Amino acid sequence: MKLSFTGIYLLVLVGCTKTNLPKKVSIKTTDSISIWIDESKKRKIPIEQRKLGLKKAYELSNQISIDSSKLRNISLIAYEAEGLNYDELFLKANNLALELSAKIKNDSIVGETHWNYGLYYTKKGKIDSAYFHYHKAYEVYDIIEEEYFKAKMLYNMGYIQGIIKDYTGSEISIINAIEIYKKLDKPKSLYRCYNYLGLIYSELEEFDRSIFSHNKALEYLKEIEDEDKVLFKEASLNNLGLVYQKQKAYDKSIENFEAAINNNELKRSNLNFYARLKDNIAYTKFLMGDTLNLKNDFYSALNIRDSLNNISGVAISKRHLAELFVIKKDTQKAIEEGREALRLVNSVENNRDKLETLMLLSKIDKNKATKYLEEYVHLNDSLQSEERKTRNKFTRIRFETDEYIEETEKLTEQNILITVGGITLLMFLSLAYFLRVQRAKNKELLFEQEQQKANEEIFSLMLKQQSKLEEGRMKERHRISEDLHDGVLGKIFGTRLGLGFLNVKGDDSTIEKHKSYIDELQSIEKEIRSISHELKNEILTSKENYTKIIHDLIEQKSITGNFKFKFKCDRSIDWDTVDDDVKINYYRIVQEGLQNIIKYAQATLVEVDIKLVNDILNLRISDNGKGFKNGKLVKKGIGLKNIESRAKKLNGNFKINSLINKGTIIFVSNPL
Amino acid sequence: MYLTPCKMKKKYNVLIVDDHPIIADVYKSGFELVSAENNDVEFQISMANSCDEALDYLKGVSKQNSIDIVFLDISLPPSSDGKFISGEDIGLKLRNDLPNCKIIVSTTFNDNYRIQVILQTLNPEGFLIKNDINKEELVTSIKSILNDTPYYSKSVLELFRKQLSTDYRLDKIDRQLLYEMSIGTKMKDLPNIIPMSMAGLEKRKKNLKVLFKVQDNDDRELILKAKEKGFI
């Protein structure tokens, strides 16, 4: 088992390195820091020199004042330092990177630093710390929705869970990673996941599932075009062989091992792996009961491992040999090899192999069986409790996260509540404000309407007053006219004729005089008659009511403003048929216009002209006052605004024209 | 100077209707002057100062004691029953009751419209505008009437002349419309005076303006033109 795990262990690290690299390279810059960093990447250069270069890069980076670019360099350096196993620099750089990235809230680098820590602690065997950091990185990537890295972290977490035998947890993590990888279509990552899943199922003794997973891994392997592919396939075959071995399907097991070992390249590229396969084949044969030539096979594997100083491997080989010697009834040799294996295992602190070796020894070394068994039980218990503790730790890490998430959710909920409340309040307030404004507007409108109505009333009263006045005057004139005509005239006529019939005695001149007086009386009659007529013919002498009102207005203003005026009004306008509204507004416009003239123009002559052309009523008010530069009227006074708004109200036009010292012309036109 | 005594003096019953006693008196003087100049005629003169008095007098009229000549003023105090508001109404009654009676209208009115109307309704044998006449003309008019010759004073003759010289043919309503406008009656009050709708009156006014070649929409000009042409 240990063997396969070791193989996977390698794959995990390779996976992380591979994917991170291109990203880092892309940030390549031409400054000295990046040169140093590049230097540290060169495999040909001795490791000490690479470390030195990296340290120089770190020192230079530390002087950068801009946090973002400093962070970029530092995180690069941390990553490289981790790769070079330069612990001191790594811890320094990664710490700084974490600090900086948190400060400037660069989440993706926060994730990266945690990832680096994860790698570091995995390497150091502090798997609980590693798990913690992978989990942190996972959280960060989850938030910023970096799906690919998130899946990687899940895989790393699953891997560590597998190590501490939390197989179900591991299975969940890996399956979650698989789901993401499938979406992203990452065959290589999928291969790793299925391979690891196969191992997990094997541990759970779900062999069918394990075999299915391994085959799935091999399927994905076909989609990978990579130079590492060869080793991947051999590793998978090896793992499959182990599953079959466990399942006691020894033929199939050997078949897979041999398929792996048949690669001629293997011996050259990974001798350890080759030895492992050789050992696995021999051991499977041993389990089958085929002991022929096994001793040589075990020894050849042992020799290779020994030559490579692979102590764990040598220990395994020795244990297998011990088992072989037991079968061969060579107890003495078996015990010898077993004890040697135990010694080696103790030297590399490999508990898993130690347990197996102890179990074996307890079976073969009858004298010390109790002692070995006790040691076995003790170690097993301690290991199990250790694993349990770690598992609990992991659970706590996850639980804390869950709690944190819950807390965050609660806070988010609160936030939402506050936001919703705030928005509601704001909406309510703005609604209230809106209503208030609307009401004020309505009030204003109502007020305006009332004012308008009042205006009209005042005007119609004025008109009525005017017409009553006019009527009274007319009546009076009629009365005078009648009196003159019927009374006075008649009496004079009678008197005159009466005088004519008088026989005046006297000389000729007296008679002549008498006659001339009579004639004089006749001409007086004529005069009176014409006066009477003129009095009566109202239409010929007096103006129309409205015209009169306007005239009076201008006259009155002319006294205030001390100017002369000319007022012309089209006589053809039948004011009786014109809307009161129009009349009122024209009256007001004239009033405002004259007011403006009084206020600003200092005019000496004002002309007001009302004309009807093609059913359009034109009003023109011109003066000879100061005027203003055309278009330079700083702001329209309330008077002009009123005129404009009145003209607009009537659907009419308003124009103002002016020249400095030439006066101003206001022009209003409105269709009737 | 001897006159043949057997010759019967022609006797005329004369009624003078005028609200001014002084004028009535003058007319009487006129008749007296005529009868003094001409022995053949004799005038029995009665006087009435109002419509009521004139009507009272008419009640007492019989075949034997008819009225031959009436001097009729137009502006008179109306009758108490309100049926007769002017001399015009009295004239109509006279025309109706006593077809042979000769009427001399004597009035201060000298506007063409009124003259025209009176001419049309009463067709008087004499038409005197008070201001036109003096003693001589008064006497002449009386003499003319006695000779069965109509007599019109110069304002009336002037009107005839004017109307003969124009082609316009205005009917009664047109004339009335113009007259009412000329005395300042408001358009809106017109339908109460003239039995026509507002729209009809407006149309007539428009037509009149076209007829008198009045430009724009000027009522004033229309009236001036109508006056000039003798319609008012």
Molecular structure report:
The complex is a heterodimer of chains A (672) and B (232). Chain A folds into four domains: 1-18 and 151-264, Alpha Horseshoe (Serine Threonine Protein Phosphatase 5, Tetratricopeptide repeat); 31-145, Serine Threonine Protein Phosphatase 5, Tetratricopeptide repeat, CATH 1.25.40; 426-540, no CATH class; 545-671, Histidine kinase-like ATPase, C-terminal domain (Heat Shock Protein 90, 2-Layer Sandwich). Chain A contains 25 helices and five strands. Chain A has helices at residues 2-26, 32-41, 47-62, 67-83, 87-103, 107-124, 127-144, 147-163, 167-184, 187-203, 207-223, 229-246, 250-261, 264-269, 271-288, 294-307, 311-327, 331-348, 351-364, 369-501, 508-536, 538-541, 545-561, 580-601, 638-649; strands at residues 564-569, 605-613, 616-623, 653-659, 663-671. A five-stranded mixed β-sheet of chain A has the order 1-2-3-5-4, covered by helices on one side. Chain A is rod-shaped, with a radius of gyration of 58 Å. In chain A, 36% of the residues are buried. Residues 1-30 of chain A have low confidence and may be disordered. Chain B has 232 residues and is an alpha/beta fold. Chain B has two domains: 10-162, Rossmann fold, CATH 3.40.50.2300; 166-228, Arc Repressor Mutant, subunit A (Orthogonal Bundle). Chain B is built from ten helices and six strands, in the order βαβαβαβαβαβααααα. Chain B has helices at 21-37, 51-59, 87-97, 112-122, 135-146, 154-165, 172-182, 190-193, 198-211, 219-228, and strands at 10-17, 41-48, 69-72, 102-107, 126-129, 151-152. Chain B has a six-stranded parallel β-sheet, with helices on both faces. The chains are: A mainly alpha (672), B alpha/beta (232). The A-B interface holds A 474, 485-486, 489-491, 493-498, 500-501, 518-519, 522, 525-526, 529, 533, 536-540, 570-574, 576 and B 18-20, 22-23, 25-27, 29-30, 33, 75, 108, 110-111, 130-131, 133-136, 138, 181-184, 186-188, 216-220, 223-224.
